[in-house]
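worker-3 :: picked Phage baseplate protein
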Amino acid sequence: MSAAGTPASRVAAASASSTIEALLRAWETAYSASPAERALGLLAAVWPEYDRSHWRGLCLGDRDACLLLLQKGLFGGRLHAVAACPACGDRLETDFDAGEVCPLPAQMPTPREPSLLKHRDYRVYFRPPCSDDIDALDDTAGQGESVALLLQRCVVSAHCGREAVAAAQLPAPLRRRLIAAMADHDPLADLQLAVECPSCRHAWSASLDVAGYLWEELDDWAQDLLAEVHVLARNYAWSERDILAMAPARRRFYLDMVQA
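worker-3 :: tokens ->
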């Protein structure tokens, strides 16, 4: 744990004007970036004492747990999800607490050490995928090609006896065991929500894109905040810095007077 305090204590201070400006800068910088880079930029804005290599090295489940903690600190712990039933097409809406789908970290997670998988004469050291691994995938590639690239990136070393073996040369049964082992070592990398349609009772699992959800919330917040700055700056000739330094209640008071 760093001297800056627990992850929760840092997020609790996220309403400070300096953090608001940092989040706005992160939002502006990440606006045209990939989803993985957006996630890393938001985490670095709130926890600047950790460099990008720290966030890049986190497995996806640990990264998403930090993102959910940030979501809770900025916008509250309740998440609102909307989905269409794949059976009847009805629109479903549900609310749930972030902690119900992912334990929120009490201490800052760190990149994990490689794990060992033994298979006959093979000894393979591997790690679960991180943000950079997902960012490296080609959206147009097939599933087999994507799996092969993930193995190439996540296999730290592999030997058959004393002979080094490339990830692409590992036998198919071992590759399948590696994929299963990576999932077992990071079970929160693919968060699934159990959903049941109240109309037709069809049940299915829906993926929760934590990084995408937080980005949508932040994007709405940033655009609303900049709209408030625009109105107050135009009417009072105040600087953006002065407006952002105001408490939200005071800023709303001035907006109400302008719009009266």
